[in-house]
Structure to design on (314 residues):
């Protein structure tokens, strides 16, 4: 008899899970354990660095090896009398939030491997030595580390496929659809965590360029646009180079520093977005100019082109 399509996918889930647990074993029990042992002996890199590279891989490994894989195996052995996997995946889904930390840390981890491989030849040699072993299948540590990042999207694809192949009256349909929704939410959760981390890192880099002035540092701010601008002086009918940072709540009017010690700009003026008005000026002498008026001050500014002026006004 031909196996039903949905069972083939459930078996594929089990087989890929088995391979995945082997990969996690390699990361946690071999790479992490051996690098940590050498770090404790003070021979390669600080212990903290090894911990930062591998993040929470131990928890992820324990969860899959001790809980999820055995549950799946049990279920597939009983398939003939209980052909369903939706409920097992529902139990798994909430724990997948653990991946948020690992995924968020991934770029930093890869960067640490590169930096410390240059700084510490013994560290690089130990990694190279493990990579030569048969269990590594000629792949690098970075390659193996990518696997957990790709695992949740893989569950999503397999489960979508499984639901598509289920007969309409299948007792597993409702559970499987609920499980898919839960996995989808977890994937969104880890992507949102990454996006938020990137936003904060970029924001912090901007604050550093502004000299970390206390009254402007706020983690909830959003940078909308930045760039050079000419300030028009009516009195002398000349222009001078300035720089703008537009946030969701304020416009910072800055002067580039000649001697860049620490900060790149000095904040000359802060205009609140609340109550601000912006309009184009038709000035024959200075094309592409616009007026920004706020509670604090009014500025006449000249952009480098019509497009740039429109982009600022917008």
């Amino acid at each position: 008899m031909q196996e039903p399509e949905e069972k083939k996918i459930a078996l594929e889930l089990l087989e890929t899970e088995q391979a995945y647990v082997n990969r996690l074993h390699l990361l946690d029990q071999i790479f992490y354990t051996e690098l940590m042992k050498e770090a404790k002996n003070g021979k390669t890199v600080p212990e903290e660095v090894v911990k930062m590279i591998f993040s929470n891989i131990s928890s992820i490994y324990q969860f899959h090896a001790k809980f999820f894989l055995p549950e799946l195996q049990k279920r597939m052995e009983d398939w003939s009398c209980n052909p369903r996997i939706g409920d097992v995946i529902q139990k798994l889904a909430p724990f997948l939030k653990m991946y948020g930390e690992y995924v968020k840390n991934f770029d930093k981890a890869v960067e640490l491997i590169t930096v410390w491989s240059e700084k510490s030849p013994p560290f690089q040699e130990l990694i190279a030595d493990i990579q030569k072993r048969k269990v590594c299948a000629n792949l690098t540590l970075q390659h193996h580390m990518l696997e957990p990042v790709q695992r949740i999207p893989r569950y999503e694809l397999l489960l979508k496929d499984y639901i598509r192949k289920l007969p309409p009256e299948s007792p597993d349909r409702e559970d499987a659809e609920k499980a898919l929704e839960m996995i989808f939410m977890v994937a969104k959760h880890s992507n949102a965590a990454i996006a938020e981390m990137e936003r904060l890192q970029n924001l912090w880099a901007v604050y550093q360029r502004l000299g970390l002035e206390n009254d402007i540092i706020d983690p909830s701010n959003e940078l909308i646009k930045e760039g050079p601008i000419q300030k028009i002086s009516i009195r002398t009918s000349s222009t001078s180079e300035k720089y703008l940072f537009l946030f969701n709540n304020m416009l910072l009017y800055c002067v580039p520093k000649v001697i860049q010690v620490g900060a790149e700009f000095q904040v000359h003026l802060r205009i609140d977005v609340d109550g601000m008005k912006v309009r184009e000026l038709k000035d024959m002498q200075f094309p592409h100019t616009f007026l920004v008026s706020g509670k604090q001050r009014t500025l006449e500014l000249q952009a480098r082109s019509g497009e740039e002026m429109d982009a600022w006004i917008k």
